[in-house]
Task: structure prediction
Amino acid sequence: MAPADTIADSVADTNAVAPGPGPDAPEPCLYVGHVMHRRLRPFVHGFRYRVFALLLDIDRIEESCARLRLLALDRFGLLGFHRRDHGARDGSALRPWVEARLAEQGLARPAQIWLLSFPRILGYVFNPLSVYWCTDAAGRLQAVVYEVKNTFGDQHPYVMAAATGEDGAARHEQDKRFFVSPFLDMGQRYRFTVHLPGRRLSIRIRQGHAGEGPSDDWLIATQHGMRRPLSDAALLRAWAAHPLMTLKVMVAIHWQALRLWLKGARFHPYRGAYPLPGSRSWGAAPAARGAQKGAAVGDLPETAANCPLPQRSTPATVAQPAE
Result:
């Protein structure tokens, strides 16, 4: 992740319509682009950082990693993907976990599941938000699972049916159920706009209080990117441009939290992952703390400055895995 771009660029992102995907179907690849956050109330605060992410077919993870020297699977490497970072967070296969979450919401078994996430870099990763796109046999988007982590070691999936509109975008809303940011209260609602990844990646999350309209948004977060081939050459270029990206994500969280505190943002202390009665709405038990710590994409600049760091793996052991 490179230094932040100008706030003027962030304003342009806030007002822009999320771009649609390219004409082709998803494929295992890299997306090189940026994450933008723009807080609108009670004061303006924003930033944009450059990032890169992996898109993998969860049924072909072994195949994708086997042909690459620079992307290690479930072991230490320059870059890596660990199944323990996602789903049940115990290293097990990801499809059964995703299918169980879909079944809890009465949604059908998908033909393909595409996972977007940051890779580990030298054994270290911080994944605030991972996204599973679920498609039917014809390649049509049918559901999206947003896998959110907070800095206290908790994880929560937001599961959404996802029919696309004429512009190719899927739009859905969800009340906030899971504690992420101490600088945003729990009485909020997310409005998601996503496209099935193609030549472009496009995710937008608007956040405001339930009952308020888009003009009353408190926070807007986006992740955009352009596709690059999943090759050793592309991985090396991405790493050379962002050599400490996952560490810089954590540093940015603390820096932005300090800035918010200095501006006088109201602080809401952590009282558990599900502080609202009945807010825990999925079947599997939350993963134990001490695994990867994260923050929702909508909360990246908002996280408390005293959060613990994610664990780091060594060559001998494997650790661990918008509001």
Notes: The chain is about 15% helix and 30% strand. The two ends are 22 Å apart (CA to CA). The longest helix spans residues 245-263.
